[in-house]
Amino acid sequence: MGSSLSKEEVFSLLKKLSEGIGPSGNEGIIRELVIDEVRKVADELRIDTLGNVIAVKKGSRGSGKLMLAAHMDEIGLFVSHIDDRGFLRILPIGGIPERSLVYQRVVIKTRDGRVYRGVLGLKPPHVIKPEELRQIPEMKEFFVDVGASSREEVLNMGIRVGDIAVFDRELSPLIGDRVTGKAIDDRVGLAVMLKSFEIIESPELDVYAVATVQEEVGLKGAEVAAYSITPDVALALDVTVASDFPGVSEHEWCTQLGKGPAIKVADGRSASGLIAHPEVVKMLIKVAEESGIPYQVEVLAGGTTDASVIALNKEGVPAGVISIPSRYIHSPVEVVDLKDVLNAIKLTKAFAEKTTYEWVSSLKERRIK
Ligand code: CO
Ligand code: ZN
Predict the structure, then answer these.
(1) Which of 172, 310, 160 is nearest to 235 (CA)?
(2) Quick one: pLDDT at residue 2?
């Protein structure tokens, strides 16, 4: 087991996870990678009906459950039409912005597991009106060119309506500890969960590491996993917006790269996503300070995580989020800092080891009369 934690090790796990093809509803490739990672260290391991992977590490107390959740799915595309000349039309899976598709290369996975490359072509500047050059095309205007010349050729490749595509992008190092790639949302949260789950030592609570499906299309996997587990406390591990780049004024920055994992206070428009349980926020801050782990406190103006639905499970669950600051989320060039990733792993481990049954019990329903 060992509690070794090197940047190289984290990078290679993140690379494997990030480069896997796994849009919402088609997480199979990522699921296999997750099972490979947790198999050796989990006391129990199961896959539920929707495809969530649930790994359990038994605690010393024999009662009380901490649920960790990180989503396996990424944003992507469905093939919605194949035309006579072999071009594919597409529809979005999750929040994939049109402007992130301009001139991209994608990988298409057929239902029988074949993988092809395609490009999202557009008219060259030579043949379009100047005003059109400045516009972002609508989803229905995009098409994927797989190199075929007819519908028949595409069908012979095994590509059908309903097959899926994601950005074609390697995870690559920038300088220092920064890395760039696709699907860092949320393969980085997944890497944090898998690495911390591996090195958590003698927790008091049972620790449930849940690799969820279909987060990007409505937090669906987490909802049923929480129902089946009935956790006493929960943490989602996901990316948050690092907005420390040109074009965003400093007073609008949500988090910064390299300044540590973020402890979430709230997210969603007008705080409609999650308002983290105040005692969970306090405990995360306390654990970070006691363990000497740098952290930021985050209030995010839009978007949310699996913690929002877990918090509403049954009679309610005290829930929080450890976020990994990430630039350019929902693009093929997301950027994170491996220092933040390592510190997020340390914080998750420390939280799991320091939370007690007595503490979670103190957060439960209290009868007044
Ligand atoms: Co996302
Ligand atoms: Zn996410």
Answers:
(1) 310
(2) 43
pLDDT at 1 over 90: no
Query: CB–CB of 263/94 below 8 Å?
Result: no
Q: Could you list which residues have their CB under 5 Å from ion ligand 1?
A: 185
- Could you check whether 2-74+182-362 and 76-167 share the same CATH topology? no
Q: Please check whether residue 41 is in contact with residue 1, taking contact to mean a CB–CB distance below 8 angstroms.
A: yes
Ligand 1 center to 186 CA (angstroms): 7
Taking CA atoms, 288 is separated from 81, 94, 242, 260, 294, in Å, by 50, 33, 20, 10, 7
Is-cis flag, bond preceding 232, omega within 30?
A: no
- Residue 4: the pLDDT is 63
Cα–Cα distance measured from residue 238 to residue 299, given in angstroms and rounded to the nearest whole number: 14
Handedness of CA 338, 339, 340, 342 (dihedral sign): positive
Nearest to 25 by CA among 89, 83, 74: 74
Q: Smallest Cα–Cα separation from 119: which of 134, 97, 98, 103?
A: 103
Domain residue limits, the chain = 2-74+182-362, 76-167
Task: Report DSSP state, residue 74.
Answer: B
Can you name the CATH fold of 76-167? Elongation Factor Tu (Ef-tu); domain 3 (2.40.30)
Whole-number Å distance, alpha carbon 187 to ligand 1 midpoint, is 10
Determine how β-strand 144-145 pairs with β-strand 115-120: antiparallel
CATH number of the domain located at residue range(s) 2-74+182-362 in this protein: 3.40.630.10
DSSP state of 255: B
CA 330 – ligand 1 centroid, Å: 6
215 is catalytic: yes
Tell me the per-residue pLDDT of 152-169, one tens digit each, with 9 for 90 and over: 999 999 999 999 999 999
**178-235 pLDDT tens trace:** 999 999 999 999 999 999 999 999 999 999 999 999 999 999 999 999 999 999 999 9
Q: Give the model confidence (pLDDT) of 220-273 as tens digits.
A: 999 999 999 999 999 999 999 999 999 999 999 999 999 999 999 999 999 999
Q: Nearest ligand to the C-alpha of residue 71? A: 2
Q: Which member of 198, 215, 223, 334 is catalytic?
A: 215
Element (H, E) at 33: helix 28-38
